[in-house]
């Protein structure tokens, strides 16, 4: 599927989404990540039918939405909930009124609307806030109202477009926990659009990394985090894991005697056996940086160590590990 916008005033056409092919399984949470201009938001607009693909097909519950007319798209959109970065609440309506709005459009009777709104307010943890207006709510509470509104018509698919980027870290985690609950308790498929790898790490089953309109990397969260194949994915992973010393930290570490090595830790890396051998041979080993993460029941990480002592022993340590894992020496 591709989306090309015609160029204006003699400028070249802009390909916002370039031959993207993705499958999101029912009940799955997919994280789509990329820097500004990568094509993420255009992809969302294609999924919910607000934009039309230039070529290819886009199947929502088996229906290709690309050739559909607006009146037919309205039926598709009833099964797609949308959560926005800036909440997009009606300031003139209470929290309950905002949640009721899509039910009013769907022609749901008043009594059923009242029941459904109360149920959703309770689900998102705002049972006592239904009469509050948006300007009486915190950012996290506003987003919870947005989530409740998106769930009002029982969608099978939920699209979250930068839904946490306007929130502080603690509030972000609360919203992500709620989205996980939506997925697990209600079985709703979720596509999360973000530029924050920590969001992907916290919630997603799979991740698609976009750059210049293309999906340049795709896999389970564990696969992409533990072994990124592209530079853009590696940069995103580094912002979340912080298990490699930055330039300033490396300069400080290099001020001390010994050789510095950063090592990928996996079940097959053999690091601890190699470290024990080097220590038994008289080398001094100090762990100076690193971290281990568990994702999707797998553990992985990176560790930076300083070895000092007999040069032959240190070299043997390096030679052994470079055959079983990724090891890089930090030098000036």
TrEMBL record:
Query: What CDD domains is this protein classified in?
Result: ABC_MetN_methionine_transporter
GO BP term, example: amino acid transport
> Which keywords fit this entry according to its UniProt record?
Amino-acid transport, ATP-binding, Cell membrane, Membrane, Nucleotide-binding, Translocase, Transport
Taking every annotated instance into account, which residue ranges of this chain make up the domain ABC transporter?
Answer: 1-237
Keyword Phosphoprotein attributed: no
A GO MF annotation of the entry reads:
ATP hydrolysis activity
Annotated InterPro entries: AAA+_ATPase (IPR003593), ABC_transporter-like_ATP-bd (IPR003439), ABC_transporter-like_CS (IPR017871), ACT-like_dom_sf (IPR045865), MetN_ABC (IPR041701), MetN_ABC_transporter-like (IPR050086), NIL_domain (IPR018449), P-loop_NTPase (IPR027417)
Instruction: Give one Pfam family, short name only.
Output: NIL
**GO annotation, cellular component aspect:** plasma membrane
Oligomeric and partner information: Homodimer. Forms a membrane-associated complex with FtsX.
Its family remark reads: Belongs to the ABC transporter superfamily.
> What does this protein do, in the record's words?
Part of the ABC transporter FtsEX involved in cellular division. Has ATPase activity.
Protein name per Swiss-Prot or TrEMBL: Methionine ABC transporter ATP-binding protein
What species is this protein from?
A: Corynebacterium frankenforstense DSM 45800
């Amino acid at each position: 599927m591709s989306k090309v916008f015609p160029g204006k005033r003699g400028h070249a056409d802009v390909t916002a989404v370039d031959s993207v092919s993705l499958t999101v399984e029912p009940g799955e949470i997919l994280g789509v990540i990329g820097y500004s201009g990568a094509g993420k938001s255009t992809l969302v607009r294609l999924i919910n039918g607000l934009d039309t693909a230039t070529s290819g097909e886009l199947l929502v519950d088996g229906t290709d939405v690309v050739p559909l007319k607006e009146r037919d798209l309205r039926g598709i959109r009833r099964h797609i909930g949308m959560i926005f970065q800036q909440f997009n609440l009606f300031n003139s309506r209470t929290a309950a009124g905002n949640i009721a709005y899509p039910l009013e459009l769907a022609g749901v009777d008043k009594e059923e609307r009242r029941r459904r709104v109360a149920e959703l307010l309770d689900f998102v943890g705002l049972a006592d806030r239904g009469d509050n207006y948006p300007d009486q709510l915190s950012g996290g509470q506003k987003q919870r109202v947005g989530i409740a509104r998106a769930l009002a018509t029982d969608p099978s698919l939920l699209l979250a477009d930068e839904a946490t980027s306007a929130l502080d870290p603690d509030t972000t985690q609360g919203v992500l926990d709620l989205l996980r609950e939506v997925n697990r308790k209600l079985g709703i498929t979720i596509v999360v659009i973000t530029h924050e790898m920590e969001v992907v790490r916290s919630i997603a089953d799979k991740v698609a990394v976009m750059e210049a309109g293309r999906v340049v990397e795709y896999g389970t969260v564990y696969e992409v985090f533990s072994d990124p194949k592209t530079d853009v994915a590696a940069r995103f992973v580094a912002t979340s894991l912080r298990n490699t010393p930055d330039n300033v930290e490396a300069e400080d570490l290099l001020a001390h005697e010994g050789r510095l090595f950063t090592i990928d830790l996996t079940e097959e890396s053999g690091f601890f056996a190699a470290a024990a051998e080097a220590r038994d041979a008289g080398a001094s080993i100090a762990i100076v940086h690193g971290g281990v993460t568990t994702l999707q029941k797998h553990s992985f990480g990176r560790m930076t160590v300083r070895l000092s002592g007999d040069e032959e022993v240190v070299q043997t340590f390096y030679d052994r590990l470079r055959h079983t894992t990724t090891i890089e020496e930090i030098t000036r």
